[in-house]
């Protein structure tokens, strides 16, 4: 397994036993797994497979490459794109890149260097690297760009790449918003996704319920606090997208009403905040 020793403590020992593979649409499949942050906080993790109209497949935030995942991918088509959606969501990129050496790896500034500094992850070539300077001009390929819009939140602390799958009106994102608890992701573990003091505390902040005031504060004072103007520009661009579903890496899929929820949580960046 081509993952760093520090990452091994974050992922389940036997992913095949606890992974939930689900077809969200005929062309989108989610790979949902347990995931612990700091060894205690149940965030859940999720990879997403999208079959393009050309027959090629894009994988976002790849998770463990289990036999069941391999079978599912074979039923969809060849993997052409491997996307690390932020500077933290890259644990299994090497595994997938070795399995599909012809695939184009997509990431953001700083990630290739971060990976090269770790013997367990070095050596993967990135075909497309987003930066604050090229973000408005970088294109992936005609087939990819025909189906996806994308925004690089260079002002987010984790350097987020957010994608819109236009045919299904689905946003795919990593750490822009969370939708805790991670019910689906822990559904095969026999463990309550809400259990644990730290999980309950973090879950009370990183959820989409009600006015989501603590989630708003997290984005305003934390994730986007160092460059609010830049973060606001990115928010305005995704607000122009047409989407309904949101597939986050952490927490449950928002099957409908997702745009209103994202707009609510990011609203301090598009309105006067006092």
Structural class: alpha/beta
The number of helical segments is 10
CATH hierarchy, class: Alpha Beta
CATH architecture, please?
4-Layer Sandwich
Radius of gyration: 17 Å
* Most strands sheet: 7 strands, mixed
What's the rounded overall pLDDT mean?
A: 94
Strand content: 15-25%
How many separate domains?
1
CATH superfamily, by name, is Ribonuclease Z/Hydroxyacylglutathione hydrolase-like
Largest sheet: spatial strand order: 1-2-5-6-7-8-9
What does this structure look like?
InterPro entries: DUF4336, RibonucZ/Hydroxyglut_hydro. This protein has 274 residues and is an alpha/beta fold. The protein has a single domain, classed as Ribonuclease Z/Hydroxyacylglutathione hydrolase-like (Metallo-beta-lactamase, Chain A, 4-Layer Sandwich), CATH 3.60.15. It contains ten helices and 13 strands. A seven-stranded mixed sheet has the order 1-2-5-6-7-8-9, covered by helices on one side. Strands 10-11-12-13 form a four-stranded mixed sheet. A two-stranded antiparallel ribbon has the order 3-4. Strand 1 and strand 2 form a beta hairpin. The longest helix has 12 residues, at 228-239. It is globular, with a radius of gyration of 17 Å. The mean pLDDT is 94.
């Amino acid at each position: 397994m081509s993952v760093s020793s520090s990452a091994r403590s974050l992922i389940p020992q036997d992913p095949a036993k606890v992974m939930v593979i689900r077809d969200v649409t005929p062309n989108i499949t989610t790979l949902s797994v347990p995931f612990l942050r700091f060894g205690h906080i149940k965030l859940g993790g999720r990879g997403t497979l999208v079959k393009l109209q050309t027959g090629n497949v894009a994988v976002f935030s790849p998770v463990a490459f289990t036999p069941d995942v391999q079978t599912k991918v074979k039923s969809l088509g060849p993997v052409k794109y491997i996307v690390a959606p932020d500077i933290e969501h890259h644990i299994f990129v090497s595994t997938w890149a070795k399995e599909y050496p012809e695939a184009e790896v997509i990431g953001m500034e700083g990630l290739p260097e971060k990976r090269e500094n770790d013997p367990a992850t070095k050596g993967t070539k990135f075909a497309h690297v987003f930066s604050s300077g090229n973000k408005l001009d970088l294109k992936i390929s005609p087939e990819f760009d025909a189906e996806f819009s994308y925004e690089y939140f260079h002002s987010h602390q984790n350097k987020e790449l957010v994608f819109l799958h236009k045919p299904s009106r689905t946003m795919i994102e990593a750490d822009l918003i969370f939708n805790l608890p991670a019910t689906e992701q822990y559904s095969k573990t026999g463990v309550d996704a809400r259990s644990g003091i730290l999980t309950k505390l973090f879950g009370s902040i990183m959820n989409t319920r009600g006015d989501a005031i603590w989630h708003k504060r997290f984005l305003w004072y934390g994730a986007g606090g160092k460059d609010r103007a830049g973060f606001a520009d990115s928010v305005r661009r995704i607000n122009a997208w047409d989407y309904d579903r949101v597939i986050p890496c952490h927490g449950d899929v928002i099957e409908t009403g997702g745009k209103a929820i994202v707009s609510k949580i990011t609203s301090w960046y598009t309105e006067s905040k006092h």
